[in-house]
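Everyone, study these two lines:
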Amino acid sequence: MLQRIQTLYLLLAAICSGGLSQFLPVRNTEASIEFAFDSIEYMILFSASALLSLISIFLFKTRQTQFVLGRLNIILNLILLGLFIYRLLTVSGETANSEKGIGLLLPILSIVLLVFANKAIKKDEALVKSVDRLR
């Protein structure tokens, strides 16, 4: 059902991946401000993460599929986080006056929300199985 707590977690993860990633900077330098949607690979990964979260919301009748999509979304966000870290460590011309933006924390926040959603989905699945045993 749509009024479950995992729906809220998945919606917040979709907002975090799809909406906030457009507005929060990844890196600030003296010359420019770099956003995640300036790079095509980050745009694709953030959009895929938001899309997986939204699809997962509407698969509330099949909790196992919802759980699997949540795990895939966590893996996708881990890949995104790894790309962020790799790019920051290997960027050429990194100077002392560039700052890391708050946008780097978005995959971490999304992972935490998806873990909470998967935990709630698992709890619902256990509840349904216990009720089926009583029948």
Remarks:
- DSSP finds four helices and three strands in the chain.
- Residues 106-134 form the longest helix (29 residues).
